[in-house]
Amino acid sequence: MDEIKQKDRQYILGTxxxxxxxxxxGKGSVCEDEQGKKYIDLGSGIGVNSLGYCDxxxxxxxxxxxxxxxxxxxLYYTSPSALxxxxxxxxxxxxxxxxxxxxAEANEAAIKTARKYSFDKYGQGRxxxxxxxxxxxxxxxxxxxxxxxxxxxxxxxPFNEGFEYCEKDIEDIKSRQGVCAVMLEFIQGEGGVxxxxxxxxxxxxxYCKSNDILFIADEVQTGVGxxxxxxxxxxxxxxxxxxxxxxxxxxxxxxxAMLAGEKCADVMGAGxxxxxxxxxxxxxxxxxxxxxRLTDEFLGEVREKGExxxxxxxxxxxxxxxxxxxxxxxxxxxxxxxxxVVKECINRGVIPLTAKEKVRLLPPLIITKEELKxxxxxxxxxxxx
Length: 385
Ligand SMILES: *Cc1c(COP(=O)(O)O)cnc(C)c1O
Prior knowledge:
Elements: H1 3-11, E1 23-27, E2 30-33, E3 38-41, H2 44-47, H3 56-66, H4 79-92, E4 96-100, H5 103-122, E5 128-132, H6 141-146, E6 163-166, H7 170-174, E7 179-184, E8 187-188, E9 194-195, H8 198-210, E10 214-218, H9 233-236, E11 242-245, E12 256-260, H10 281-293, H11 296-313, E13 319-325, E14 328-333, H12 338-347, E15 350-351, E16 353-355, E17 358-361, H13 369-384
Parallel strand pairs: 3-15, 5-6, 5-7, 7-10, 10-11
Antiparallel strand pairs: 1-2, 2-3, 4-12, 8-9, 11-12, 13-14, 14-17, 16-17
Helix pairs in contact: 3-10, 4-10, 11-13, 12-13
Bound molecules: pyridoxal-5'-phosphate (PLP).
The site of pyridoxal-5'-phosphate has 15 residues, from helix 5.
């Protein structure tokens, strides 16, 4: 074992079961281990490196900001966060943005916004947040509680109050009382790349609208071009009251964002919420650059590349089904264990992810069709053996 792996095991809290791979550098869709062996990346650091490793323009934008001003706190005005917020609002039609540092933190902001929206308007007691079975919303206490996976609700008692877990069934949702918001992922990512049924989403959306219940979309994984639209809600034809973003937004630096629509843009006033690092100038400069690259043409290519991967995989030996949209795809296997497939792929120079029992692909959005064909070819080989 190399020295770094040893130090990692000795000194870093053992919360991650790492693969046996030490990545030292990367460019575009390809990274290298400590021995110089190259890998095509089909995971982009769990959907984070949206422009791949060390994109030239992104590095330049980040470096320029880094040499100008790295941090001020939110006591003062800075330009990168204001300009990124403007770009996000004009891109999505949302009214205001709250910046933070992760997906969980963005969802925390959404939960607080929903509770306060309801408190301001209806007083106490209408505070429950509905989430869907198999969802994933984060690891902090509130977002872990929001995560409707029984297996994750262990050890850390007491969990937070005020969350209700529903089936993907409108009648189940309608039967819950004292609800201020429904929070959902259009495509459940960690749950196994499970897209919600369009009709179900429309039913929930209409129900929320007519009952003044906030509709919160957790687009931490699906957002920022991942599915071939800037927001996944565009595929579903709905406009959530709140959308949360994180993973791909910074292009590799930690950022989270809560986008608030008209209805709740003014719910959170001065002193109600905050984040010391939120809206960091360097991170926001990176985010602005990511947005500048996600043109309609670019997103069209993301959709095409997603279709290409589906064509390559559907009907292949050992593949039962392929789910997802754009470059967020889940591969259900006939027999093989997803983690075994990933391990063998890594041996052969390709890095996919897993999501529950599926192999999950979240390649950098800039990956070329040639790289995809090569990487998916190896993946097919491994699955079909
Ligand atoms: C990854 C993820 C989160 C949590 O994001 P962190 O940055 O790890 O806190 C929340 N929701 C969804 C849908 C995610 O995919």
